[in-house]
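Agenda item 2: NAP complex prediction
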Amino acid sequence: MTAQPVIAVTGSTGAVGGRVARDLAARGILQRLLVRDASRAPELAGAEVRVAGYSDADAAVAALAGVETLFMVSASESADRVEHHRTFVEAAARAGVRSIVYTSFLAAAPDAVFTLGRDHAATEEIIRASGMSWTFLRDNFYMDMMELFAGDDGVIRGPAGGGRCSLVSRSDVAATAVAVLLDPAAHTDTAYDLTGPEALTLAEVAEKISAVRGHPVRHLDETLDEAYASRAVYGAPPWQVDAWVSTYTAIASGDLARVSGDVEAVTGRPAQSFDEFLGAVA
Ligand SMILES: NC(=O)c1ccc[n+]([C@@H]2O[C@H](COP(=O)([O-])OP(=O)(O)OC[C@H]3O[C@@H](n4cnc5c(N)ncnc54)[C@H](OP(=O)(O)O)[C@@H]3O)[C@@H](O)[C@H]2O)c1
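Presented output:
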């Protein structure tokens, strides 16, 4: 009889899921990759590929047959993301998946200042109600995004004030996910706050980027009105502009300042600092 994978991984065409899939493959773990476009799936030893987006319940049920543990990367931002998540979670439960590991967000709550944190709270509720056991990886903002926050002029614009944010690296999120996937029973019905080892203001983030990259980056604190006005040129729908602006107001609120030891507790090694992260990708 051929061995079948009992772990399924979503998001392997993206950054976090791709790291998780490569790490599992390097350890010789069999896995099933659920992707939306098979031609973009990574080619990995011990990995089989199935096509199933989150909004296609029948494809998801078929793709998850025989799977015990599912790594679910939150879908790309959209107005109806929670409904896609609901369809997929309910399909996983129907397919007989026992444990689900979901990438949520730090301080996820129905009234979270970061508006997308509300989607994550709703998804957590759907997962809790599904009957599957769960592990939530409540990631803070990724260190990897910070340089992208700066415009071509080197300015990170947004109403974050002097608020602090305990940024985490994607690689620490992926390493934590792998540790959980390898032993899901040890992490049953647990939520982890995945943060870096320190909480930084955006002025400090900008200073560190400037020092390592050798070109000036600075944080410009905006008022709320200025923040909406400076983003109006993109013509994005209101929910998306709210998400962009609330990235900064959430930092200002202090909601994202908590420093947790969960990365180290789960992986056995300290979380990367922003200096270490910048040095590693220099
Ligand atoms: N904490 C943060 O700072 C932060 C920042 C950005 C995003 N996020 C969230 O964290 C998630 C993972 O981050 P990442 O950096 O790995 O993002 P990423 O590189 O954009 O990858 C997202 C992955 O999710 C898949 N996906 C998206 N929507 C899907 C859907 N409806 N059904 C099935 N698969 C879907 C994508 O597949 P395709 O290749 O087919 O698109 C891709 O493989 C993101 O999707 C987002 O929800 C967090």
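Discussion summary: The first strand starts at residue 7 and ends at 10.
Owner for follow-up: CH.
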